[in-house]
Amino acid sequence: MSPYRAIFEAYVADLTVARDRALKWWSGLITKEETTSGETKAHAEQRVRQRWPFGPTLHPYVLAVYRQYYIECERLNNKLYPRLPPIANASPVSEEDWGVPDDSEPVTTDRADRDPEDAFWASMGPCDPPVLLFDVLHERHEALGEFMAWLVFAPIGSENDISV
User: Fold this and answer.
1) What domain of life is recorded for the organism (predicted)?
2) What would the mean pLDDT of 1-12 be, rounded to a whole number?
3) How far apart are CA 5 and CA 118, in angstroms?
4) What pTM did the predictor assign?
């Protein structure tokens, strides 16, 4: 299994749990406001959104899951695709840097025998964490993707052993 796929599948599992907990918290806030104010549920939610404008998506459970997998993806990128130091006194790139074509063996691009799912994950990398955590999520788990659409900032910071 692709390491990006492993990260993604763990992210979906953890995010599903965090989302469910955040939605329960959110529902409790609305119910409490509805009971306290005597207003309709819609008005109670409107009042709760005055304090929490981005809703349950910004609950600490959800933020913690996003941050964890953002950092895991960044660590994997750094492990699989280490940044090379710049070459001192490097000459400008030229067409000759491509080398000479080798026509002895044909290049095959037929991957009919390859599972499309494996091909998708094999093409990942290096992968920008928001692509994995937002774009791929929305493509493959639309409901979770819609829930995460309210995450309007990247709650990342830094770790001692990684700068993100």
Assistant:
1) Bacteria
2) 95
3) 9
4) 0.76
